Each structure stands twice: as structure tokens, then as C-alpha cells.
Amino acid sequence: MAIKFADRMDNLKASEIRELLKFAADPSIISFGGGMPAPELFPVEEMKKVAVAVLEESGQSALQYATTEGNVKLREQIADRMNRKYQSKVALDDVLITSGSQQGLDFAGKIFINEGDVVLCESPSYLGAINAFKAYGPKFIEVPTDDHGMVIEELEKILDSTENVKMVYVIPDFQNPSGKTWTMERRERFMEVINKHEIPVIEDNPYGELRFEGEILPSLKSMDTKDLVVFLGTYSKIFAPGLRIGWVCAAPEILQKFNFVKQSADLQSSTISQMEAAKFGEMYDLDAHVEKIKAVYKVRRDLMMKIMKEEFPEGVKWTYPEGGLFTWVVLPEHINARDLLKKCLEEKVAFVPGGAFFPNGGNENTFRLNYSNAPEEKLEEGMKRLAKAIKSMM
Amino acid sequence: MAIKFADRMDNLKASEIRELLKFAADPSIISFGGGMPAPELFPVEEMKKVAVAVLEESGQSALQYATTEGNVKLREQIADRMNRKYQSKVALDDVLITSGSQQGLDFAGKIFINEGDVVLCESPSYLGAINAFKAYGPKFIEVPTDDHGMVIEELEKILDSTENVKMVYVIPDFQNPSGKTWTMERRERFMEVINKHEIPVIEDNPYGELRFEGEILPSLKSMDTKDLVVFLGTYSKIFAPGLRIGWVCAAPEILQKFNFVKQSADLQSSTISQMEAAKFGEMYDLDAHVEKIKAVYKVRRDLMMKIMKEEFPEGVKWTYPEGGLFTWVVLPEHINARDLLKKCLEEKVAFVPGGAFFPNGGNENTFRLNYSNAPEEKLEEGMKRLAKAIKSMM
């Protein structure tokens, strides 16, 4: 075939996480791979009542086209949520609904990145964001992180010595993939540096509410005095990913660009999904639902940590996440996590090798584990198989 | 603010159609502007049963992440539909679900267009497609059309004399905005030329099933022997746009690119919306539903045609659509449709000025009328107001 694709298509390939979802469909495999919520916690019975209520009260509007920015009630609830949970001071007009926060990532790339521009991100960073940005042809510079978050001295060095830095992408709360959370002090210093350099920040926060211990820290957005921070949120982890409801919260000049881009990308997100999410917020207590999720995930995190401590051989390190969905494992340098995965798939257990989370490659001795999706018994069995496979490669 | 947006943002502005949706929200305005289906025909009662059935039978899966390519049952129904309606021979693996066909348009731009590449389209063409493609920086060449479709001699001349033509975008059935349909002979000659030049074709077909008279003609996709045609379909006009269900049907090499792009753009379309659309197809008769829609729209088309004939002054011309949602009006050259719109908004009636449908500008004496969204009484009143406004400008 003589068809010529655009050059950008050379940068895109199938996501390993999505490919892994195919394994996960095999019920005999215990998967720590995806970032899937526990389906047994979805409010299925409540959603039946919600769906009927939406169609009874406003069936015709629910099935019709609606505005690009999204459902007013839902945006109101989201603004309120951000103010209550993350100390923001935003209103519904600061919020635009997206189809999951993944769409917010794609749009951020489209809005900010010219080919060859520099994007800064944590090292490692979220694979899905890296792939979304790659379509727009940036160079990535990975900023080193430690247990307290991004290393600000390194960020400053890079900003002082680099042209064309167009945006900084960060996940300060229970980072994907590392599970780490930035301290308050790190957030403050980060915003000082950002304000000095006036670089847009994409603050991706899918997991912030899922904190098992301690207090939720203020979002970068709440500390933003120069309209530089674009906050991406989602209902996927606190409610249900199948509805594809996420949001962008940004200053008017930036949010208008998101609106234009969304118009040409898909006009609007599902009217009925938005109305259902808003109606759930009216009829039920989403905060109480999040508490239920946290209680279950905390038990799974604790169990995963316990088994790692008991079963993983010396020389293997991992992070202790105070919330969210993931922990991050660093193997001795001579072990390649892709080889480990091959062995593990034979043993019917899966995870995501860490190399893909580094946009500039390397770090093949790392991998990400998800603990939200497997019930305790399965989690225990899967972790034992994984430990055995690691031991066999030491 | 010092923030620098990507260069492509200079090409994007708010769609006039979307801005008009804001007028349409004012209930005192009779709008022929949008492309909205008649909401009174939405199967609201059926959807209540469908929603409950989906949540009862597979509530956890309906609220969970799912695969990028989309729900298997829905893709099966769509492939079957394409084969029955448009003489295609496709299977579920040839179909990928998108969030409306607008998303298919954006993805087509992303997949095929490098900055400066040439995109051919009918003159006029769909505003939303033009805007979606513009984000990727192409040059547009408009191919002249007559009452039988694209003028093939002109297409050949352009292809013979132009470098870097990366795709041809067409709407052969009840075109948006013109309401015109390509004849069989024109389809055959088009495919001959395309096969010779081996250029990808984006065949956008949102309205094809809404034919009020005569037989549905074969899709270009069904006549495609070289895997060059990408077919975009949607449930928005035959079912409900609020679910945001569209699809792409293409050869494996091309469809795989759509899959990669969708992964990074939004992972997948709404799981629950897809399951509901598929369940509706199982529980009810979508073909029968389409017949109901056609019967209502035919009456409205007839009424609009009748009033135009009776009330529009000499020197105004319009198309006779055999189906779909739109007719296209050409005013005498000295009348600017944007000025007419201003006058009409004072009289509480709205439409979309035609200039925006020509990517290279001009043709300001044209506009598009939609007849699907207004009940007869309103349609009659609105058309009379419109006729009066036109007369006052002659």
C-alpha cells in the first residue's frame, strides 16, 4: 500500500499497559499490571437508580448533544470537591469536562507542544502521559526525584540551562508509577521556581483522595498565584472509569484553549455519563463512597507490603505508598524486568516493567505493581508467585 | 502571562456551530443552526430498560475500564449494519469505536497530516472536519461539486498537478452542509481516480441511512479494492448523540494507527455507553427506530421545501436533499449571510452562515439550514421569519 502516514505516527506504539489488559482478560492470570479499580466496589445498585432517575427527569436532554465545557451541575460538584479536598478556590467556570484525565493529557500536549519543545517530567513518570505527549514530538528531560518528590535543585539547574521548556508534567500525589508523594516543603519550593520561570505546569491528580494515612496536602493549583497550573482530575479512581469522566481546571485563557481543542476532538463528553455522575452526587454521598474504597485499598496495600517484606529477596527495594494504587520495585541492576515478566506470565502473574515509564529509556531493572484490583486471597497468591520468580533470577 | 501555546493553536477557534448551540439554549429562538436530531424521537423509555438490563447483567464490567477497540457485541452489530445498509463486507475486527465520528475526524488528521500536506475536500465541506484537520496544519484544496457530487475532472486535474496530497475527505451521502448525494456513476469514477493515485479517502457518513426516497447507494468503502477508504460512522443521527458512539472502519494497517492514537487520546470510549448501545440493538429494533426518524424528518424537509418555494424571493437558490438533515441556501452575491444572521437573531431565528464551510474562505452569500430539530409549527414560523428577513435585504 502506498499510503503515507504522518511523521508523528513513528512515535506512537501500543501501550504496554493496554496490551497487558489483554492478559488480564485471561481469568487464570493474577494481574498487578493495570491501574484498574476494584470492580466489586462499584456502586452498581445505586447506578441503576441513578440511570432511571436521569432518564425520567431529563431523558431527552440526556440523549442529546450538549455544550463542550460540560454539564453545569457536575462542574459545580467538581469545583466544590477541589475546594474541599485540595484547598483550591475555583468555580464551575474554571472546570471543563474531559473523557477521563487521559484526554486532558492529550489536549495539554496539543495546546503547548511544538515539535522539538522540551517537556520536563519526574523520573519515572506516567507512561500514558509520555505517550500522549509523544504524538506532538517533544524532547523529554527527566527531573530526578527522591522520597520527598521532585528534586528542586535539579529542576532549577535544568530550567537555567535549557531553552524551549514548554511545560512541566507532574503527579505530586501517590505518583504513577512510583507511589511517592511530594512533601509540603517540596510543593512550596517547586511553585517558587515555577513562578520565577513562568512555565505552565500540568498537575495530574487521579489518586489524591485515596490517602490511607495523614492529611491530603494542598494541590499545586491551590498554591498557584500566576495562573500557571493546569489541574487534571478524574472520576475513574474515586467512582468508575467506565463512564470516562475527567476534568481540567485552569485559568480562563488556558481553559479556552482546552475548549477549542475539545470541540474539534470530540465536541463533548457523553451527556448521559455526565448527568449520571452529577445525579449520583445528588442522590448519594461520594465522599462516603471514597471512604469505602480507601478502607479496602489500605488492606491490600498493607498485605502487599507485608508479603514483599517477608518474601522478596535482599537487594530488592520498593516504595511505601501512603495512598493511591501503586508501589514501585527496583531490582538489582542485572535483572531485567521484561525477562522477569516473561517468567511470571508462565506462572500466571503479571505487572508492568518499569522501563516504559522513563521517556529516555534505561532503568530496565524496575517495575510497577498495582494493589487495588486483586482481592486479598489472589493478591497473596500472586505476590508469592512473583517473589518466587524474582528469587529464581537473583 | 508569559505562557506560550503551540503554534497550531493559532489555527483553532471556537466553532460557529458550537457557539450557536448557546443561542439555541434560549427557548425563544427557533434555531435551524445545529445538526441536532429531534429529541422527541429519542427512545427514552426503552433506554431506561436498557440501562437497568446492562447494570443487572454486567454492572461491574459496565463501570470498569475496557479495551481500546471497543465492545465486541457493538462492533459486531455495526459491522452487520454496514454490510446490510451500505453493501460492505466487513467484520467486527475492521471496526473501532470512537467518541462520535468527530473523534474519527480528529484521529484521521493526526494519523495522516504533516504540516503543509494537502487535504482535498468538497467545496463546501463540513466545518467540524475542517476545524479538526486544521489543528495539524494542512493546506486545503477545495474540489468543485455539482448536483451529482464531486466533479471528477476537477479532482483529476488537482491530483495530477499537486504534490503531497495526503488524503481526500468526502461526505457522499446527504452532504453536510449542502444536502447533496453523489450518484453511483460519480462514486465509481471517484474510486477509479483514487485507485490510480492511491490516496487515502476519509468517507464520512453520518446521515446515509436517513434516506427519504430512493435506495441507499453503496458506500465508497464497499467499492474499495485497495484498502484506501476509511469509513466513519456514528449512532448520533440514527440513535442518540448524547452517548457519543461513533466508529471507524478501515483496513488493519490503518485501523491499528487509529487504535494507537485512541490509546493516547482517551484510552477508550465510555464502557457503559457502548454496552447500552449494544443492548438496545439486542432488545429493540434499531432499523424500525430509524424508520420512525425518517418519517418525521421527511415531513419536515417537505415543509421546509414548500415554504422556501412559497416565501423565498427570486434570486435565492437552495438544494433538494433526498435525506439527511440539511439544505443549503445560496443568496444573491451582494447579501452577506452573516449580516442576515444578525438581522435574524433580532427576529429570534438562527442558522449557520456558509462561509465557514469553505476552508479557503469566500462564499459569504450562503448558509445552511437544518430541518430535523424543529417541530412543524416552529419550523413554519421560523422559516417565515427567515423569509421576511431575506426579503428585507434584497
TrEMBL record, chains A, B:
Keyword Transferase: yes
GO biological process: alpha-amino acid metabolic process
GO molecular function: 2-aminoadipate transaminase activity; pyridoxal phosphate binding
Domain Aminotransferase class I/classII large: 47-386
Signal peptide per UniProt: none
Entry EC no(s): 2.6.1.39
Alphabetized InterPro entries for the sequence: Aminotransferase_I/II_large, Class-I_PLP-dep_aminotransf, PyrdxlP-dep_Trfase, PyrdxlP-dep_Trfase_major, PyrdxlP-dep_Trfase_small
Cell membrane among keywords: no
Domain of life where this protein originates: Bacteria
Class of enzymatic activity (EC top level): transferase
Cofactor: pyridoxal 5'-phosphate
Keywords (A to Z) from UniProt: Aminotransferase, Pyridoxal phosphate, Transferase
Assembly mode: Homodimer.
Family the UniProt entry places it in: Belongs to the class-I pyridoxal-phosphate-dependent aminotransferase family.
Name of the protein described by the UniProt record: 2-aminoadipate transaminase LysN
